[in-house]
Write a structure and sequence with these properties.
This protein is an all-alpha fold. The chain has 4 helices and no strands. Pfam families: PQ-loop (PF04193).
């Protein structure tokens, strides 16, 4: 994988979009509240990010691989919490 100036721009852009999920991960983990989180949206988002990750690996793009790898971890953690905590508030 080759890091070019355009890859650096991709890394900066990816950093911004990837870490935008972090506040939601932290809030969901702390509150265990997932009622306002859409399961379908996060399933589709995780699948899309997985495809971007595959694409990045195929294109040998450092920016796509790193940012989508981290994004997949963050969005998947929200998805897992949605499944684990979904019945907590309804008891």
């Amino acid at each position: 994988m080759n890091i070019t100036p355009i890859e650096i721009i991709g890394l900066i852009a990816g950093f911004c979009t990837t870490f935008s999920f972090l506040p939601q991960v932290v809030r969901t983990w702390r509150t265990k509240s997932v009622d306002d989180i859409s399961l379908r949206m996060y399933l589709l988002l995780c699948f899309g990010i997985l495809l971007w990750l595959y694409y990045g690996i195929s294109m040998q793009s450092v920016a796509l691989v790193l940012t989508n790898g981290v994004s997949l971890i963050l969005t998947s953690s929200i998805l897992v919490m949605k499944v684990l905590y979904r019945n907590r508030g309804r008891q």
